[in-house]
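USER:
Class, as today's exercise, take the chain set out below, and explain how the chain folds.
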Amino acid sequence: MMNRFLKTFVLAAGLSLCIGIQANASSSSSDPVGDLNDSGTKITQIFKNGSSGSGGSSSGNDEETTITYRIIPGTDNLIARNIVSSAKDLKIPATVKGDNGITYFVTAIGKDAMTSNSTIESVTIGDNVETIGDNAFRKANAMKSLKTGAMLRTIGASAFRRNVRLDTVNFGNNLDTIGPYAFAGDESLKSITIGNMATAIGTGAFQNCINLTSAKLGDSIAAIGGDAFRNDVSLTDISIPFNVTRIEASTFAGDKHLAKITLGPRLNSIGPGAFRGASIATLDIPDTVSLIQQEAFAQCYRLTTVNFGTNVSVIEMGAFRGDDALTTV
């Protein structure tokens, strides 16, 4: 037996908001960003611009956003499971008050919540959202700016992948993990600053961000996945964070304007093709590094000087292949 309650609240400036609660059989799922099935309790918000909200005439700006949430079983927390919008600006709220009088906290945005949207230009994430699921905003081709909330900790795989107009991202101070390919192919992105609470950047996270000129990485980052900044051809310098012990394969490969590399003091190995094609002239290898793998610095045509640390014990074949200007080791 299904009960449905619907109320409409008319707000100022021609904005109307509908909140509905639909209760089905309870769900046994506890995954906050996975595929919660269609059982469980659903809450729907409908925001309308350009309407009087009371049967009056339209102002001609008929933008509408519908957000469907699921209550995470056993909590007063919500996951935004589906977002449909024709508006330009999207704000994910921190809380939602249901018809039952309960105030729910929006703590997650689900997998595939709003893929391939063509109208949203800016997204603001509410301060209670801790997790953004895989592919949540993938191929939102009009999106230009993203502001995440203060509590955001995890950005899922491909969450903002191929958002080709996205040029501004403001990460909150509590961000911990950026998933694989989260911002890959975001061709307009110019700079990123990842704070000191972050610990991991996934494989290919910023791959093919061809206009990225600056990437400031917090010192708590301990893992940077392979291909993470591959083919970021506008990137000019990078400092490897203090806690990183290994640079994975092709992490900065193809970054042809990368002229300054500062390697961290705990680094012990540099993976295959890690900096292949960089434009560095001088390279300082810390004393902590023991392994430099094949093609790690291959095709660095401007490299003239390498200062090796005291503990380098293995340099694999081709590690400096094609570095024809190299004269001092």
Notes: The CA atoms of residues 292 and 315 lie 5 Å apart. The longest strand covers residues 41-49.
